[in-house]
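The passage that follows is intended for readers who have already worked through the single-chain material. We present the inputs for a multi-component assembly, then the predicted structure in tokenized form, and finally a short commentary. You are encouraged to pause after the input and sketch how you expect the pieces to fit together before reading on.
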Amino acid sequence: MRMLCACRVVFFRLSPLSRAGTMVLPLVSRWSARVLWASPGWRRTYTQRACVGLKRLGCPRGVYSPLAHRAYSVVAGGPEVTLTPERYPVQRLPFSTVSEEDLAAFECIIPGRVITDPEQLQTCNVDWLKTVRGCSKVLLRPQTSEEVSQILRHCYKRNLAVNPQGGNTGMVGGSVPVFDEVILSTALMNQVISFHDVSGILVCQAGCVLEELSRYVQERDFIMPLDLGAKGSCHIGGNVATNAGGLRFLRYGSLRGTVLGLEVVLADGTILNCLTSLRKDNTGYDLKQMFIGSEGTLGVITAVSIVCPPRPKAVNVAFLGCPGFAEVLQTFRTCRGMLGEILSAFEFMDTECMQLVGQHLQLTNPVQESPFYVLVETSGSSAGHDAEKLTNVLEQVLNSGLVTDGTMATDQRKVQMLWALRERITEALSRDGYVFKYDLSLPVERLYDLVIDLRTRLGPRAKHVVGYGHLGDGNLHLNVTAEAFSRELLGALEPYVYAWTAEQRGSVSAEHGLGFKKKDVLGYSKPPVAVTLMQQLKAMLDPEGILNPYKTLPAQA
Amino acid sequence: MRMLCACRVVFFRLSPLSRAGTMVLPLVSRWSARVLWASPGWRRTYTQRACVGLKRLGCPRGVYSPLAHRAYSVVAGGPEVTLTPERYPVQRLPFSTVSEEDLAAFECIIPGRVITDPEQLQTCNVDWLKTVRGCSKVLLRPQTSEEVSQILRHCYKRNLAVNPQGGNTGMVGGSVPVFDEVILSTALMNQVISFHDVSGILVCQAGCVLEELSRYVQERDFIMPLDLGAKGSCHIGGNVATNAGGLRFLRYGSLRGTVLGLEVVLADGTILNCLTSLRKDNTGYDLKQMFIGSEGTLGVITAVSIVCPPRPKAVNVAFLGCPGFAEVLQTFRTCRGMLGEILSAFEFMDTECMQLVGQHLQLTNPVQESPFYVLVETSGSSAGHDAEKLTNVLEQVLNSGLVTDGTMATDQRKVQMLWALRERITEALSRDGYVFKYDLSLPVERLYDLVIDLRTRLGPRAKHVVGYGHLGDGNLHLNVTAEAFSRELLGALEPYVYAWTAEQRGSVSAEHGLGFKKKDVLGYSKPPVAVTLMQQLKAMLDPEGILNPYKTLPAQA
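Having made your guess, compare it with the prediction:
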């Protein structure tokens, strides 16, 4: 790996052309203020200037709200996606087929919201990555839990398979039908039920879009405890159903802690109301946990109670270039030690990621080209204190050569633009060709080894092999692009990647879930006893197996 | 309520007699430095002095480690505890009785660790509150999961009921047998399996004592994510099995987020190994969640993987007197707003609690007598920043009359002594007579109303009616003491307290669980559909019902 010697810190300046909220980010103007780290004197000056700078700019109360909606429009064109059963070895299970009588029954339950128009059905049958496609003939759009209950009661009696669908932003083909499952969309279940402006507890229907909820609670001085690239489309119910991780996991933890209550409709239409708003409740088994991360296979989440943290008064983002992965790790340790409770994100990306966001999205690298980049975010209650802590960190990592170049932002729009570099990698990849996606938990020390290994293994068969992700959580997003889907490339990747991960006692799905595409690799991360128990749980809650079939669990022998 | 007008802030000074680690705290010397808040000038002086004081004292790296081991010795004497079936309406289920052949089989599995001596069995048959007593004839002390597995396999075949037992510090009679269940103790399963000094992930056997783990990780610059009064005796396995909340919940959240993996032995002896050390793992259903908080009724937890937060560099504690509950609430809001991410605890207690810790434990009130007291703790990475934030808060709450008197501590021993005032309330209550204990989640605004209500309702029938708890989590510990157990008093309390709580949509068990004593009140907080589902889950995992019978779920009709 190349060592970059020039050390500088760049104060981020926004081009006057840039506008928050636009889909395509304008070219980011390159830094306009540089401080060369030639002598200790300079370093001191930098520290002082940084603090003054922050104070002068004020302490924006706004928090990061990424621009990057997933660019559906961009990937919606092109050739038709291969039908899932044509690409993958999967047999339709003996469910009934939707009849005219079924359609009439649905129409009775949700008049005017039974969609059978093939054009409207098209987008619901295909995942956003355009890798799997079902052939459902009907999309149902209930507005209430009672309607969901009646629909499921009907499907249960009629042995009709059901595919619950939120924002359809999943990465593993869990949100679209495999065959002709009835699509049950939460899109019209988008009402906030209540918000408590002292406790920050939000209760809402499952179909609320994450970004809209973010806006709603931010106006009330709170933030959502989760944030992810797909926020502009994903539904909170889908987030919970897939136990989404995302960008705030490091600071605010898992949905298993922040979700306080759920309302779920079970396979037979029974409504399970565990929609409490209590931070603590040890009365019996915590049933809601069964549904968090169950990908719609155990029940349909219809409402969510979630605790929102207070909106931080100050947010700072530093974007840094590192000469090697060892330095990335050491920078993380330094940040965790020195930033402590205000560290709210530590993301990394490799140089190929940066090239891809430049090439496909015209985003500009704000720092000197480096083998690795990290994005460090702090969120805290005192702008002055936070800036001082971050400045101390930057001084330390630059002095010690862990970081060769960096830029810092405190203004909300600039913060967003730095975040876009990390967040829009997924979008850039999807424009690069067919993407083989892996989302792995690995021991942090070995997080990048697999990327290097795969580059050698695949050689020119892959267009790009890139690694990025939530380093603070030990979560690598490993992506391989190719001109088109190729069985040969797939064969070179799998099971190799899974076996490699299992050898490290890692997880073959850190946050994306298993859905359709990863269901057969469950055994790489879970022992047979666990898989059997999962199957028993599924049989208990969904004895007919009508809920999101062909997903999450491997087909039983 | 009496309004206290004198405003002063007291710097806590430790009596030379006091020794950390002793069971009975010496008298705390009363404050020796007072700053009268007569004018804005004085206030400024206070602020400056507080900061200087903190700097002078240095920034203790030590974190709070409460002295209060639960005083078993104190409550161990006295008359024999009534056998549970004599006080409560409960019928023995048709389990087998332990035979000589069973004892021989156990002896083969764990030679020398099969205890049948009645004296040794005595303490394991009685809960520490001396409210329930079983009559088990055998205590088993396995050292490994394999041994637990063999024991359960035998019990399952023989239809022998099993009572898993950790530190036996539970509040709801969940940890002792009701009849003659085999006691399966985790006491000898007390080995640390691994600790990762970068990630802070600890893997250990279930019988490790929380305080010992705390010490272990503190030596490595981390802390346990939970802390509770019983830390000197409770086992981590028991903590997880009961989903313990405790004193760090506000900051580090629930065990549902911090526990990364579990090893569990199922009813039939099958070992379920989900002992991963990954922060993120979305491969299939998160089975470990079923066992967290299941009180040993679904499986026996034999090992735990838990993520420990870095040890904070600075800990400050303020102990404040408030003139009314409205002011307690407003002080909480002020602290949350101004302390943000460094607020690590916000506890409250009423004046009767203070009287009891004074009367029974000779602890001295370090501030002027007030209707309410709050303990505010900050934990952060910068002593200077944290002290500045806390000082600003204190200035604000004193100026606005929310607080009438206060004292602050940064030194570890002094921090511990302030904490003892809050933490040893349970112990003081147990010395006051028979204690009727309620652990409720309520809307924070109404948290104290029930205490006032009950004082009127019970009149002189109760010795004391006290309220204290984790205000930041909406968790009230409501305790009523009497000279002895009384059915009449119980009748005045129940179901009144539960119905009152249900009316507020609260939880009848915030953190203590249901165990034996609360199992029949589950329906006040959970709908029938949920209770049915819990029963199905129990039947699935423990079809013979041998694991901790008569606990958690109401007896089926």
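Commentary: Residues 433-525 of chain B form a domain with the Alpha-Beta Plaits fold (CATH 3.30.70.2740). Confidence is low (pLDDT under 50) at residues 1-76 of chain B. How closely did your sketch match?
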